[in-house]
Amino acid sequence: MTASASAVPWSAGRWTHEPAAVRPDGDALLVTAVEGSDAWRTTAYGFVHDSEHALLAPLDPGTAVEVAFTGDFSGEFDQAGVFVRVDDEHWTKAGVEFADGALQLGAVVTHRFSDWSVAPVPDWAGRRITIRVSRAGDAITVRARAGDEPFRLVRVAYLAPDAQASAGPLISAPSRADLTVRFEAWTVGPADAALH
User: Fold this and answer.
1) How many independent structural domains does the chain possess?
2) Taking burial as the number of CB atoms within 10 A of a residue's CB, which of 93, 125, 128, 158 is the most buried?
3) What is the pTM of this model?
4) Residues 6 or more apart whose Cβ sits within 8 Å of residue 98
5) Per-residue pLDDT tens digits for 17-56
6) 185: nearest Cα among 15, 8, 5, 3
């Protein structure tokens, strides 16, 4: 994040659904997910899951949010990243999840129905991962990186310019009870100046 960015206190957010456990670890936050937690609406699977753990604060137009965490996952669909929420039927989650035996970088964009895009990033396992979501005009732009690598573009998705949106750290554990993620930073700052 740029020099004009500022840290968001963990206490500034509100959980969409309370995690199994939350505890400070220095400046970081250790969060343990409830087994079966997830976010999805209908497409391909026929079910609605609305049980993710997302710590949210307002995401105003012209701003960006970054969340950093350690990507140490082993359970099928273990996931962490950023959640952007307008309402139950309009939201985006972006980050990494463990699927098909490897860490995957991707996003789920939901406008009544969810879609999902992923790409394997097995070399990101165990590293500090940063997910950045920038809001400008009628779009959010998702970027991600591991360590100090350059950010890579993950997704550009529609978000109504007048939508009241909130965003922040996300964790879900669809298949197990003991996923704990160490969230190392949550910052906000100005939106990206350009898409490319």
Assistant:
1) 1
2) 93
3) 0.96
4) 73, 74, 75, 76, 77, 78, 79, 104
5) 999 999 999 999 999 999 999 999 999 899 999 999 999 9
6) 8
